[in-house]
Amino acid sequence: MEKLVVGNLKMNILSPLEREQYFKLFKKELAGKKLSRTSIVLCPPAIHLEAFKKLKSKKVFLGVQNMFWERNGSYTGEISPDMVRNFGAEWVILGHSERRRYFGENDEEIGLKVMAALKTGLRPLLCVGEKEKQGNGSATIMSQLKNCLKEVGAARIENVVICYEPVWAISANNPDHLPTTDGVMSARILIKRFLVEKYSAKTADKVKIIYGGSVDSKNAKNICVDSGMDGALVGRESLAPYEFIKIAEIINQ
Ligand code: PGA
């Protein structure tokens, strides 16, 4: 299965000048890299989306970090699935824990967004994951999957990528807050089992499952490759093209 490395640039890159610097570094790091079986998806703040088209290629695609489910209308401050698509993105991160935490998003709303994305031809990167290191993580993951994918039928599920992001490991900057290879593998098996039960083994095989939470070039092999994951969702390190492309090369191996 083709691997996927997603860069979630979050609320960074504060000016056109900073953006140009990022482009320069990104192009330099990507030049000459094969990445024969890995695609990169960059998710900048939506205000940068059009400019980021400059980086698009056979290997590099674009996404956004959130969107609304309605197509257009009086929804001040929101962007719609059609806008996202018409401005050059194919992907959308949905249900990120920071959206849940700071903007009160719930599973029902995320489910609406997932369906709106799929109907518009966008591919959702659906984030699920438990809040605490200790506790019943499996129950949280299962209920998030159940609720957010409620309306998604077998014909559409292969366009969804499930991102397992244990919330306690996001931006943790602390080796104690990194899951083990086995821990990530167990989450993968759980998600797979959900997909097999809801759809079928054949369909489940077509759905990518990736890991996110403090991925860097030192831990990428352990947590994203050895755990059997199909790629990574990278936050902080996606702001440093040198590190980000290094992660993509590790995933590609
Ligand atoms: P991080 O972010 O790599 O900085 O932990 C990952 C994410 O929030 O998707």
What is the distance, rounded to the nearest whole angstrom, between the alpha carbons of the first and last residues? 12 Å
Q: Biggest sheet: strands side by side, in what order?
A: 1-2-3-4-5-6-7-8
- Mean pLDDT across residues: 96
Bound molecules: 2-phosphoglycolic acid
Q: How many β-strand stretches?
A: 8
What is the CATH homologous superfamily assignment? Answer: Aldolase class I
Q: How big is the Rg?
A: 17 Å
Reading the helices and strands in chain order gives: EHEHEHEHHEHHEHHEHEH
Percent helix range: 40-55%
Which fold name corresponds to the CATH topology? TIM Barrel
The CATH class, by name, is Alpha Beta
The figure for the number of domains is 1
Low-confidence stretches: none
Gross geometry:
globular
Per CATH, which architecture? Alpha-Beta Barrel
Query: Quick one: biggest sheet?
Result: 8 strands, parallel, barrel
Going by helix content, strand content and strand pairing, the class is alpha/beta
Percent strand: 15-25%
User: Can you count the helices?
Assistant: 11
Give the tags.
single chain; 253 residues; alpha/beta; TIM Barrel; 8 strands; 15% strand; binds 2-phosphoglycolic acid
What this model shows, in words?
This protein has 253 residues and is an alpha/beta fold. It is 40% helix and 15% strand. It has a single domain, classed as TIM Barrel (Alpha-Beta Barrel), CATH 3.20.20.70. It is built from eleven helices and eight strands. Strands 1-2-3-4-5-6-7-8 form an eight-stranded parallel beta barrel, surrounded by four helices. Helix 3 links the parallel strand 3 (60-64) and strand 4. Helix 6 runs parallel beside helix 8 (181-198). The model has no long low-confidence stretch (mean pLDDT 96). Residues 8, 165, 170-171, 212-215, 233-236 line the site of 2-phosphoglycolic acid. 2-phosphoglycolic acid (PGA) binds at residues 8, 165, 170-171, 212-215, 233-236.
